Structures are given as C-alpha cells and as structure tokens.
Amino acid sequence: IASDSSDDEKVEIIDENDENIDKNGKNEEKSGEVDQEFVFKNMHLRHITKENHGSEINQILINHSDPRFSNMLVTVGDNQANVYDNEHMGKHLDIYLHFINKENPFSDSKRTQFGLKTCCWMRESGGEGELRDDVYLVLGGEDKMIHIISIKRTKVISLLRGHNGTIVDLCAHPTNPRILLSVSMDNTIKMWDIHAEDPSTSCLRTFEFGGGVNVALFNPSGTKIYGGGTHGNIRVMEVGDLSVGKKLVRITKASEPGSLVRIEKRHHTASIDCLKFLGDRLVSKSVDGKIAVWDPLSGKLDHEIRINNSRNVPCRFDISKDGLYLCCGNGDGQVFVHKIQGGAAIKKMEHRKLKHAVKSAAFSRDNRNILFTSNCLLWRFDFIDPEVIKAAREAGGVPEVVVEDDE
Question: Which end of the chain is more exposed for a tag (fewer CB within 10 A), N or C?
C-alpha cells in the first residue's frame, strides 16, 4: 500500500478478522435471494486502490442518475477525478476516465489551487446537441467553477462561473435533468440550467444563506431546496417559478413578503455535512456523528442514529437502493452499516492498516459491495460466502480468494 509508484495500486485482500456487531446472522434465503443482513455480516476487505495524487479523497459517488450506468463510480481528490467501472471487471476496479483540473482561459490568474471538493452525476436531458446514451459528471472545487464533463465524449463540455468561493457540494434535480444545485463557501446556493444557450442566463437562482452552508439538495419533487448550515441549522427554500429568470434571494426572515424561505429546522448543534431524502423523510447528519431521520413538513423527529468516534470529521453517508440500510464512516477509519428503521448496527468494517478518517462511503447497486475513501485510498468490502472462504482455507488458498492473517 505504501508504494512510491505513481500508478494506481490495486491490492486484493480479504480480512478474516473483521468483527460483526450483531453475531446472530444466519445464512437464510428469502424468495431465492440471500438475506441482505447475511450479506453485510459476511463482507470482507477485497480491494484497495491507491490514487496517484497522494492526497485525501474528498468524495466517492456511485452513478444512480441512470440505471444503465450504475456500474460507474467517481472519486475526487486533489485536482483529480477518477471514474471507475465497479461491475464488469470481476473483483477488480477498472479505471474508465481520468480528469485533471488545471488552468484554463477562465481561471483566476491570482489563484494556483485547482483542488476538487465535490461531484455529482446528471443524466442527459434529450436536448439538441446532446449525445444519446450519455451521462454527465459534474465537478466543483477551489477554482470556483463548475465543470460539466460528457462521459461519452470524454471532455469538458461546459464551465459554469458565478461563485466567489470554493464549491463544496453539488446536487442534480430529481426530475429535470437540466437543473443543477451548487453550494459554495461564499455562503450561497446557486441553481443552474446546465444547457442554457446563453451562458449568462445559466444561473437561475442565487440563495444567500445568511451564514455558512455546507450541503444542499432538492426534495423528491424538486419544488424545495434544503440547505445544511455550519451551525446545525437546516433551511428550506421554495424553488418558485423558474420562468422569471435569474433572481437573487436573500435568506433573512421567513415571514418577509415574497420570501422563498418557508421554514428553518434544527435537529443538530454541530455543522451539517450530509443530507439525503428517504421517501418523504429527510436524513441529516452532522460532523459529531448524529444522524437524524425526520419529517421535513412537520419537523418531527422519528429517531436518531449515532456514529461513534466521528471526531468532528465530515463524512458523507449513503442509503441503500432499497432504502433499508445506511453506511457511514468515522474519524477512526471504521465504517458502519445500520438499519435505518430503528437504527440497529449490522456490521462494522475496519482493518489494522485503515487508520485515517473515512470521508465518504457508498453502497453498490446490489449491496454486494461497500466502497469508501480514507486518505488517498479507495477501499472496497465485498460479500464472500463463508463456504467459499472455508473451501479456500481447506485447499490452502485459491487464486480467487486471498486471505491475509493478522500476524
């Protein structure tokens, strides 16, 4: 792992020393499928990729914008973005696209930093000039610009400018593939039309948050925006009528005439670092490890999940496709899988070489892999049937399964 090679390094490992939190897992089958909790409880470290930038990976994100491309996952770290194929290369991760953010004609001549902080996936809108069966990777970071990359063309097709600070979060509209949300350290949330013919009209809304803001997302219908602040506050803004064009919205008082701000809820006291919708419930997380599941309309809290030893380090969590499970890392390099209903812990993933904080975690489409980032490393835990491991040990090891002892 500590290789000095500049190439991405891949190591296949199964760690037989991972301990389950709940020891009552059984090899059951439901309707011909392996029980999901059995899958989680039998996950082992199978793959490590070291990215050659040597810096912290800020985010990992699997493409859920289009089921046809759910094999794609992206990581962003330093000034690089890497797109991998997670499904078609067996136990390997195959690099599909490598992007380096560097100076361009629109760069600020006084700035020398081009680090990437966040990303999101967007599907094609079907408009003129777009390629069919394309998907877009959107990147943002220290250069204050939003980079729209066509995966099919393998090039940047658009640059969106308007923020005055580092871009820290991006979110695609759930129903309109032209609309993008961006969050910046300039304390604003902007809404964009990424396919606007005139670049000067691409910014549809600018919400001045009235304080530090880290993350934002649309509700499932796309009619509201939820923004998470640095003081644990979550503000809800109405999208409004987009036909009125560009508009500046200052978030001051929800009672202000014509205000697009409707409510402000607070279930956290620490900085918000991740927001996701689960049906009609909002799942919010703060850097102290508190995850709240609540009704965004009434503000009523359903229940909480606690990620211990978070140490005030931001970590983006993920929710499984079936909406039943959540995975999240902590400041000690551990990743936990929890039931969302009730919050029970199902699995703890850790390794003696995993010592740095986990910054982002994600489920694969079929929940057979959990991927997460720590420092410059991309880790993947896979489900491996206990019978396969047993047979490998009895045979003295086989090429398909490599077991690393804790000696």
Answer: C
